[in-house]
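Entry 14. Ran structure prediction on the chain below.
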Amino acid sequence: LGAGSAVLGALVDEGRRRGATTAWLQVERRNDRAGDWYRRLGFTRISGYRYRVR
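Output, structure tokens:
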């Protein structure tokens, strides 16, 4: 595992230790690389969003 995976894993573990049953995060829809990484770590996409700039 890389450093990012280790840190995220530690955060999720600490949340569980404190009684959390879910972990939520946000990734911009077009950031496929990050979305793929989170899915590999066990997260599931439940919705999407994108920024609109005028």
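The longest helix spans residues 3-17. Will compare against last week's run tomorrow.
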